[in-house]
Amino acid sequence: MAAAGALAVKTLEFEGKQKGWFWFRKWDLEDMSSICWFTGIHVLAACAPFVFDRGAIRLCVGFALLSAFGMTLGYHRLLCHRSFKIPKWLEYFFVYCGAHAFQGMRAVVIHHFAALASYVSHKWGERPWNTSDTSTNKWWVAVLTLGEGWHNNHHAFPRSARHGLE
Ligand SMILES: [Zn+2]
Ligand SMILES: [Zn+2]
């Protein structure tokens, strides 16, 4: 998940675009699409209390968990880093779960946990490995993000299938 952010930064550097915060950037179609998408899902999330339903909450948590496993296990560790090998049908299953991460209410949950991992894990926490970046480990972020919070470990050993190396 964090790797996607790092890749985006590298891509922007490669394209030579000058990207700054809100007022300090030239808005292009991609920026406008992103702001419409993220504003849209947050407006829909704000409507959630008006249609509260316990069953829907349980379903959301279950699907969010399944999709989060698909993201971290399928997309990140398996496809991005090729950290381990599993049968092809299981590979398809995890990637299929991950592909649903941006659907319904779970999109909001997964987006915020992914953002949490990317942000906190480059700001606060322990650095058992002296990597050339600002990556850190934070146990409670790791709990919330199915292990992605062991981010310093991941930067030190990107291809390792184990999150908590220490
Ligand atoms: Zn990182
Ligand atoms: Zn990674």
TrEMBL record:
It comes from Lactuca sativa (Garden lettuce). One of its GO terms (biological process) is very long-chain fatty acid biosynthetic process. Keywords: Fatty acid metabolism, Lipid metabolism, Membrane, Oxidoreductase, Transmembrane, Transmembrane helix. InterPro entries: Acyl-CoA_DS. Pathway: Lipid metabolism. GO terms for cellular component: endoplasmic reticulum membrane. GO terms for molecular function: palmitoyl-[glycerolipid] 7-desaturase activity. The chain crosses the membrane at residues 32-52, 59-78. CDD domains: Delta9-FADS-like (cd03505). It comes from the Eukaryota. This is Fatty acid desaturase domain-containing protein. It is a multi-pass membrane protein. Belongs to the fatty acid desaturase type 1 family. It is found in: Membrane.
